[in-house]
Amino acid sequence: MTSTNELRLMKAEQVDHYVAHGYVLIEGAIDRAWLERLQAASDEFVEQSRALTKSNADIDIEPNHTSQAPRLRRLTNPVDNHPAFAELALGGPIADIALDLLGSPARYHHSKLNYKWSQGGTSVEWHQDIQYWPHTDFTPLTIGVYLADVDDEMGPMGIVPGSQSGELFNLYDHDQSWTGNIRTEDLSRVALDTVDWLKGPAGSVTVHNCGAVHGSMPNESDRPRPLLLQTYSAADSYPLLGVGTNGRTGRSSGVLIGDSSAPDTLTVQGRTMAAAPDWSRGGYTTIFDVQGPRTCSSEAGTTR
Ligand SMILES: O=C(O)CCC(=O)C(=O)O
Questions:
Q1: Which atom of ligand 1 is nearest to the CA of 155?
Q2: 115 C-alpha vs ligand 1 centroid, how far in Å?
Q3: Residue 165: which region, alpha, beta or left (left: phi > 0; alpha: psi -120 to 50)?
């Protein structure tokens, strides 16, 4: 974490709140000019959605969506699909919040825009995020921006304070099917009477740790509740590929934000190494090519 006298956007007490409780609400973090850019970008996708009769890779629509009355559930990977979202998350004020909380550099993981449309936009049941995309540590956190004013009627994000360092719940049903939410009988061990419902004017920002229990009610109002979400981890935290949604998190997933001159290291079970670069998108041939025309010798340091 950044030393508090070098904070880019957050106040020291907001950082302290996140550390102690696993979440924080930052009102007014996104200014009017940014908000208008983000709203305009979102409107472009709503317009595009009018041509859809079913969800595609980028836009998830509700079953009762029509061209006259669009009802969007989610934009998938907005950072990969629009420069305004990319700039906000990889170099703008949301990147600054990530760097304040995770230190510089930090690692971007994925993004999405959950609309929770008016009059029935669906609830999100109580869950933790880390089971969806496990990492090598518990630094991952998600930063949300409300693109509209959000009140109680609209299904704001609710967080259970302190749950980030508590039990990791099983998000499978008894028949081992993945439901993605905490089993009903386990909810008795969650302090739901303490939930903090994060609301505020457009431009308010929510932050929650990957272990924090959270969810949201349906939107019963006549206004959609667009919440733009970006996930990051510490630079030396890595997604465990082959588990959950890791590996399908988009082109920009894995990029470092902030101080790119810092060495890339990986820590597993407390042991740190300078791991090889990410060749998952190509670039690697064989150990013979990368090591070049040298011969290993038993004499220390001798190569030819
Ligand atoms: O949109 C919301 O209210 C919550 C979203 C969420 O928890 C998630 O997508 O993991």
A1: 3
A2: 10
A3: alpha
